[in-house]
Amino acid sequence: MSSELYHIKQQFVLGAYKTLINLTLPDPNSPTYTPTLLYQARAHLALNDPESALKLIPADSDNVTVKAAASLARYVSASQSAEKEAIDASLEELRDLAVEIDGDDEEVDENEKALVRVLAGTAFALAGEIEEALETLGVDTEDLEAVSVIVQIYLSINRPDLAKKQFERSKRWAEDDLLLQLIESTIGLTTGKDRYSNTCSFYTEQLGNPSLSSPHLLTARGVTRILRNEIQEAKSDLDESLEQQKGDSEATAALVVAGGLGALKNTETEALWSRFVTEYPQHPLVVDVLQKEALFDEFASKFTVPALAV
């Protein structure tokens, strides 16, 4: 891997998506053209901008990884508009590609096959097809990106034990890769190991890189600091993250939590929460809080206050 492509991969892994999409694409005849194109398309998807990803991806490409990226982009776009037929069609495209690469096509190398599985598995996981996602990715895989997605899936279904097994298994064959460190930090963020010290140290180390600008990392460290009860430090990280990426839903959600723990005045927190609910009604935090409010109101309506004793 060239030093230029290594740096691009590093930006993607650490969430420097805006920096990545602003890079100039290499010449189409360059060996780094397709990998750079794919990282940029995936960065657009990470920023919930599938239309920009689709504009970037050549519609007439025969490359299976490019086709898979386009199908994933179409899935994300259809999901945003709840178009069931388009959702089903894009998932079927990815299933077909996953079957296609299992053949003996010598023109598709192992790295390309692994990436197709990662893209397809990501879509299946987002669609709630957990078993299909894990089967596509392969729980015995030796591709670190696939392991990263598998770990995220296990953490999302509250199985940190299985996520840890994937990490420990990967350490036997993976080099001391940046992505491997990120996987370990993500597990630590979920489990709270050693009071989140390793996770916080990892984010701090990466944020010290002068060639990297990642609001994603700032948000991650802000969340870690909330969990460490470092509320004002968390607010500082989240404020800086929102300066770099205004309106980011994850940073705003974390700031709402920090505000409720004393980082903001009550009136400021309430105003921020009201805006957040209006702008991101489907965010998991909003959905969870509103469900709990509805349950509280339901049970409260069934509770009869007894008359005062005379």
Q: In short, what is this structure?
A:
With 310 residues, the chain is an all-alpha fold.
Descriptive overview:
The structure is a single chain. The model has no long low-confidence stretch (mean pLDDT 94). The relative contact order is 0.06. The chain is built from 17 helices and no strands. It starts with a helix and ends in a 9-residue tail after the last helix. Helix 10 packs antiparallel against helix 11 (178-191) and helix 13 runs antiparallel to helix 14 (231-244). With 310 residues, it is mostly helical. The chain has helices at 3-13, 17-21, 33-46, 50-56, 64-80, 84-100, 110-126, 130-137, 144-156, 160-171, 178-191, 197-207, 215-227, 231-244, 249-263, 266-279, 284-301.
Give the rounded overall mean pLDDT. Answer: 94
Distance between the termini: 83 Å
Order of helices and strands: HHHHHHHHHHHHHHHHH
Task: Give helix % range.
Answer: over 70%
Low-confidence stretches: none
Reported for the largest beta sheet, the result is: none
Compute the gyration radius: what is it?
22 Å
Shape, per Cα inertia axes? globular
The tally of helices reads: 17
The count of strands amounts to 0
Q: Indicate the structural class.
A: mainly alpha
Quaternary organization: single chain
Range of strand content:
under 5%
